[in-house]
Amino acid sequence: MKFFIDTAEIAEIEKWAPTGFLDGVTTNPSLIKKSGRDMIEVITQICEITNTPVSAEVAALDYGGMLKEAEVLKKIAPNVCIKLPTTMAGLHACSTLTKQGVNTNLTLCFSANQALLVAKAGATYVSPFIGRLDDINLDGMQLIEDIRTIYDNYGFETQILAASIRTPNHVSDAALAGADVATIPASTLEKLVHHPLTDKGLEGFVKDWASTGQSIL
């Protein structure tokens, strides 16, 4: 499964880009607002750090407006992926951009039917929001499983990008459910690394090694 980082904070991307774990970056209007910076500047700087896919979201709600904004965004760098809402206008714009060879990410997907339309529109990625479904007492992970089944049934190439990841369990569950990608906040990425038994075991190894008086160098 690919790991994207869900952030517009440059420091977080610079930290994770050299690790080899980072397969892409997703942003959205809320993350841009949180960064307090100009969107075009942020996306440009991210694309200077990584040549992996970088999702940049349109703000327009109408088909024509989306295409005009997509034209601006895709000129930033070749690895920009145009992020569109899963609406009728967004699906229409996706279909048009796909025919132009532009990568797209359809966001705010909350149903299998929406995901089916996204695949038929030729999107590169569909972003089902796991955490927001869980928030209203629905099963976000079941949606991932349903989309996986539908896409496999018909050979759709659209990649399932599990979004609204809240916990490490969301990541492992999404992987088990067959998601192609998980886009993960930096704080959750950090948690994937740690386990108390790893820390405890390492503490014992360090103590025992020190007692040998040896040095590898």
Q: Can you put this structure into words, describing what you see?
A:
It is a single chain. By secondary structure, this protein is an alpha/beta fold. It is built from eleven helices and eight strands. The chain has helices spanning 10-16, 29-35, 39-49, 63-74, 88-99, 112-120, 130-135, 140-154, 168-177, 186-193, 196-212, and strands at 2-6, 24-26, 54-57, 80-85, 104-109, 125-128, 159-162, 181-184. Strands 1-2-3-4-5-6-7-8 form an eight-stranded parallel barrel, surrounded by seven helices. Helix 4 packs across helix 5, helix 6 packs parallel to helix 8 and helix 8 (140-154) packs parallel to helix 9 (168-177). The radius of gyration is 20 Å and the shape is globular. The two termini are 37 Å apart. The mean pLDDT is 97.
Ends distance? 37 Å
What proportion strand? 15-25%
Main sheet: strands, sense, barrel: 8 strands, parallel, barrel
Tell me the total number of β-strands: 8
In quaternary terms, these chains amount to: single chain
Helix content: 40-55%
Strand order of the largest sheet: 1-2-3-4-5-6-7-8
Count up the helices.
11
Shape: globular
What's the overall average pLDDT, rounded? 97
Q: What are the segments in which pLDDT stays under 50 over at least 5 consecutive residues?
A: none
Q: State the order of secondary-structure elements, H for helix, E for strand.
A: EHEHHEHEHEHEHHEHEHH
Give me the secondary-structure category.
Answer: alpha/beta
Q: Rounded to an integer, what's the Rg over CA atoms?
A: 20 Å
